[in-house]
């Protein structure tokens, strides 16, 4: 402690301006430097710090006001939603009461409609079966006719000679001539 007081006392006994040196006594130089720095900070930083704190205070107040406004809006929306919920619950109860009888009616209508559709499908099926049977019968008849015709042609070609062929042609021509005379 004695050194600290000595350094303050020796302020008046500074060496001449021509020499420059460092004071290596830490205890003597730190309190002086700290007091100078703190004094400058308090003098110049007081306004800046005050402005920073005021700005921060205003932002916090604005945030609180915005939060209150949002809270009020949210409460209003909540009340509207609750009113809508009550209305929907009342409508749901009405639908529930009226819905059961309507469900039964719709069920009966659906059953009747399904029965009619099944009946129509059965008719369509029977018609299709009948049509397919007719078509199959026609195809079989055509094949039988073609086979009979081919068999007859084969038989005619094998038994028909030139002389028989010429006689058949002349008999047909005579018949055609007779028919022509009758019509004229």
Distance between the termini: 168 Å
Coarse shape = elongated
Structural class: mainly alpha
Question: What is the share of helical residues?
Answer: over 70%
> Unreliable segments (pLDDT under 50, ≥5 consecutive)?
7-17
Mean of all residue-level pLDDT scores = 82
Number of helices: 3
Helices and strands, in order, run as HHH
Radius of gyration: 62 Å
Mind summarizing the main beta sheet?
none
Account of the 3D structure:
With 184 residues, the chain is an all-alpha fold. It has a domain at 33-144. 89% of the residues lie in helices and 0% in strands. The protein has 3 helices and no strands. The chain is elongated. It starts with a helix and ends with a helix. Residues 7-17 have low confidence and may be disordered.
Key phrases:
ATP synthesis; ATP_synth_b/b'su_bac/chlpt; transport; transmembrane helix; mainly alpha; 184 residues; ATP synthase CF0 subunit I; 3 helices; elongated
Summarize the structure.
The protein is mainly alpha-helical.
Write the layout of secondary structure elements.
Elements: H1 2-9, H2 26-159, H3 162-183
């Amino acid at each position: 402690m004695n050194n600290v007081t000595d350094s303050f006392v020796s302020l008046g006994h500074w060496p001449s301006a021509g020499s420059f040196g460092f004071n290596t006594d830490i205890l003597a130089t730190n309190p002086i430097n700290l007091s100078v720095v703190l004094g400058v900070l308090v003098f110049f930083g007081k306004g800046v710090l005050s402005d920073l704190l005021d700005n921060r205070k205003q932002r916090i107040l604005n945030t609180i006001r915005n939060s209150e406004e949002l809270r009020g809006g949210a409460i209003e929306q909540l009340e509207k939603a609750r009113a809508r919920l009550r209305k929907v619950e009342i409508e749901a109860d009405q639908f529930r009461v009226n819905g059961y009888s309507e469900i039964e009616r719709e069920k009966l209508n659906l059953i009747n409609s399904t029965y009619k559709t099944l009946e129509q499908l059965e008719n369509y099926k029977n018609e299709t079966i009948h049509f397919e049977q007719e078509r199959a019968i026609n195809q079989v008849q055509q094949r039988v006719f073609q086979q009979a015709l081919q068999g007859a042609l084969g038989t005619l070609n094998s038994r028909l000679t030139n002389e028989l062929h010429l006689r058949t042609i002349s008999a047909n021509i005579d018949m055609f001539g007779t028919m022509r005379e009758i019509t004229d």
